[in-house]
Amino acid sequence: MTDTDDRPDSTVPERPDGTAPAGPGPGRGAAAWAVLLPPGRYEAERLVHHDTLELTGLTGLTGDAAAGGPATARARAADAGATATRAGAADATAGPRPGDAVAVLTEDPLRLVALGRVARATAERREDPDDPQSDPASGAFVVAYTRRVFDEPVPADGLALDGPVTALPADAYRALVGRLGPPPARRSWLVSLDLPIEAATPAEAVRLFWSYVRDLGPRELPAFVSPSGDELAMQAFVLGAEANQDPEEDD
């Protein structure tokens, strides 16, 4: 697991603009949302580090964070015990706003993979966030990550989701965060990528190296990682997971 924010996540954060959070009950109205990753996006988020999650093509969102234009958000919240309720949920009519808390989920089965906050979309986004050369998109729903658990997702049973973005009661959000436990201690790692390259000069070899990295990327190239000072514990990773690179061990 990777923690990217030392702020406590056990409570739903207030909005940074100082406005009162949405919701019907005093002290219970902090806005929170469940965001469901589209098919294939979980694997992409595991492969390459992103500071933000950008989702395009969403419909039915309003609010300052909805870049796709005005509409009416459909949202249904359920508590951690699978009983549907709107008590303490974010204001679904207003839609997500910058600063609202977000639980990022993947399905089949439903699991929590990250926490974040709604961020304001910029004027121009790319159709494919993994490809800076892709065509600009008209807008995106943006979540700034505060904690990632892509490598060790936790079960999110008991939530009833209504589309890619669903309002969550504060109690349901806190229950999800409570399943994560404390973040692990950060440490220093050595990560390397070794490629045999034939070239006439060192400069050409370096150019070819970066070309191979660009063209093949983490889907095909193994990266080797070990704790600093313990190179004997080196492991190979391909597609975001440990991979055996010793053919003798496969026999």
Describe the structure.
The chain has 251 residues and is an alpha+beta fold. The chain has two domains: 1-185, no CATH class; 189-250, no CATH class. Helices cover 16% and strands 23% of the residues. It contains four helices and 14 strands. The protein has helices at 41-47, 170-178, 202-220, 247-250, and strands at 2-3, 32-36, 52-55, 101-106, 111-119, 125-126, 136-137, 141-148, 154-155, 165-167, 189-192, 223-227, 235-238, 241-242. The strands form three sheets. Strands 1, 2, 3, 4, 5, 8, 9 and 10 form an eight-stranded mixed beta sheet that branches. A four-stranded antiparallel beta sheet has the order 11-12-13-14. β4 and β5 (111-119) form a beta hairpin. The longest helix has 19 residues, at 202-220. The radius of gyration is 21 Å and the shape is elongated. The two termini are 32 Å apart. Residues 5-10, 18-30 and 67-88 have low confidence and may be disordered.
